[in-house]
Design goal:
single chain; mainly beta; five-stranded mixed beta sheet; four-stranded antiparallel beta sheet; 14 strands; 53% strand; globular; disordered C terminus
Length: 160
């Protein structure tokens, strides 16, 4: 497969738990692409625009931009995205079947001056959600429990 019209290298990638989709980001674009292994298409499809946005107007805090890393939880319900030049982690709700759905869900913020160095979801967490572990640039580890609402998506902002 290829990204039509793009001559760029892949920065990071994550498989859906059902192995039907691969999400990836390139080094030079603030976009997420996906490849479906349920169809015969040979092109990667842009699925989320991650251009920088003002997340908190009170302090002009930015989120988004070029992707640093991706993590997809083992239930296939949450995707976490960290960025190269902003300190926030974006969390998306995901659903896969014959197609892939990705919906913004919230942001995770560390302490002032920290940037996410690495992140990973705990495998096989089965308490109605998932746990994202984040290693911050300060050397601190943070465990972010994400509880899934039976009433659908609600915007959340997690500050721990």
């Amino acid at each position: 497969w290829t990204v039509a019209g793009v001559q760029d290298s892949v920065q990071c990638a994550a498989w859906s738990p059902d192995n039907n989709f691969l999400i990836f980001a390139t080094c030079e674009e603030p976009l997420l692409y996906y490849v479906s292994f349920l169809s015969s298409t040979v092109n990667a499809v842009p699925v989320v625009d991650l251009a920088e946005v003002i997340v908190d107007e009170e302090c002009d805090e930015l989120g988004g931009g070029l992707v640093q890393d991706l993590a997809w939880d083992s239930t296939g319900n949450r995707l976490a995205v960290s960025f190269r030049n902003t300190s926030l982690i974006a969390v998306f709700s995901t659903r896969s079947g014959s197609t892939l759905s990705i919906t913004p869900c919230g942001w995770i913020r560390g302490h002032k001056g920290e940037f996410p160095s690495c992140m990973q979801f705990q495998a096989d967490f089965s308490e109605g959600g998932s746990v994202l572990t984040v290693g911050w640039s300060s050397g601190r580890l943070q465990y972010c429990p994400l509880v899934y609402s039976p009433y659908g998506l609600q915007d959340t902002k997690v500050e721990l």
